[in-house]
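Sanity check

After download, print the first record. It should look like this:
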Amino acid sequence: MTTARTIDPHAKPDRPVTVFVAIGSNMGDRSAHMDHAFRALASTAGIRLLRQSSVHETAPVGPPGQGPYLNAVAEISTDLSPHALLATLLQIESQRGRDRTREVRFGPRTLDLDMLIWDASLPGFARIDAPGLTVPHPRMHERPFVLLPLAELDPEMARRAAVSPVHFVSD
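Expected structure tokens:
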């Protein structure tokens, strides 16, 4: 069982933290959308792109009729608050035409950026549970298309994430 420490989503960390971000695309020029995501992460103030996995093509999860996804994981360092990082990720998605208000749940998308793990240096997982933001990603352990690229960057982190869902404990 993995335990987690609760993080205030609006508080800036007192030091840069390592965050893993899932990146996926299955509409339009998927490769260009993925490249844009990596470039945007690398060029945004308050974020440093540390490493990126290779890009994997995977079958879609969700309604039928979707094309295959390209998936990857980025390891970043940030001094942004979780809420500010989420806003940045949503802005990057929007730059590629994603409109979350008009899409079907688990449907196709030009670009999808999800925070997987916040502050990878912690012995357990950091927990963020706020409207629109749940970290660790609640379905990460069920998604090989996330675990495989995560394992390229941090095999131990992927093993811990794959073992079971995270059980949250109060501080």
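If your output differs, re-run the checksum step. Summary of this record's structure: The chain has a mean pLDDT of 86.
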